[in-house]
Every structure is written in structure tokens, then in C-alpha cells.
Design brief:
It contains 8 helices and 2 strands; from the N terminus they run ααααβαβααα. It is mostly helical. The chain folds into 2 domains: 3-93 and 133-183, no CATH class; 97-131, no CATH class. Helix 1 (3-30) packs across helix 2 (44-55), helix 1 packs across helix 3 (61-78) and helix 3 (61-78) crosses helix 7.
Length: 186
Amino acid sequence: MDLDKIIYPQFETAAGRSTLFELKFRLLANKTKELSDVAEAFKFNDTFQRTMEFFKTNLSQQDIETLELAKKIRNKIVHGDFKAAFNILKPAPSGARVLQDIENVSGEELLGKLFEMAEGKGNSTTIPEAEKPGMFGWLLEASMGNLFQKSIDLNNAAITIVDRIALDAALEGIDDPKIRERLRPK
């Protein structure tokens, strides 16, 4: 797999969308008189919490969940905790396991052993943490598991919500209902 042509561009787009989500969220706070003091807070969490509280009546439960998940992903990507970022998108199973006693078994027997392992039966052992793939392995897993695209899609959904809130707030500032209705997207 070509890192420069496939994996790095995927990560770059995912990280870029996370950063754009933060920027748009901060701009929303900045243009809101009651929130402008927190728009440039050092910790994005401070801006996020105050802005969410201020606009909570404009948000559905699904909107809130999407925005909160996008913030979690952004925090993990920006701070380099890539394993945690992608575990949020794809929670890890209870640990990778290795089948034991599979030498000289038929394909049918191997399939049976896999089903047993999935049910928590059979002879398998957990791979110790030291044998797990590290940052490079997580990068490959994220790419191969389409987790970068999941992050991009999540951030696109969060950005759409922020854009909608910003438009609604801007339209509320227009006194003439006819103009307000004409400007509202259909």
C-alpha cells in the first residue's frame, strides 16, 4: 500500500475536516455576541460547551450526538491520539485473539474453530499488548477499515449542522419576515 498516495492523503483529509469543524464552530461563537468572549479560548472544549449550551434549543438529540462525536474525534486527531480516535469510530473488540492448535487441520475444521472462538469457546489466546501493531499498524487499520472516510463523513455532518445553526442565527437578525423567508434555503 502506497503511504504517500493513499494513506497520508486520507489522513490529511480526515484531519482537515476535523480542523474545519473546529474553525466553523469557533466562528459561530465569535459572531454570536453572547459567546464572542469564548470563541478564541485556548481549549476548544470551553468554546464547544458554551456554544452547545447557547444553541441547545436549535439542536435535535441526533445533532447533539453528532457534534459531540465530531469534537471527540477532533480532539484525538489534533492531539495525536490516533488509536483512540479510530477506536471511537470502530470500538475494538475485547482484544485480538490467536487460534491455537490449528496445524494440519482441514478448512472445515478451521472454520469450526473460528466459530467456536467467536462464541468464546475453543482454544485461543489474547495477543499481549506488546505484540499489537503500534501507531503504524493503527494507521494501516484505519485506512483499510475505511475509518478515515467515517471520520470525514462525521465531520461533514457536523459542519452541516454548524452551518445550519449559523444561518438560522443570521436569519433571526432580519426583522422583515418576507426577506427572512426568501433567504431561507428550500
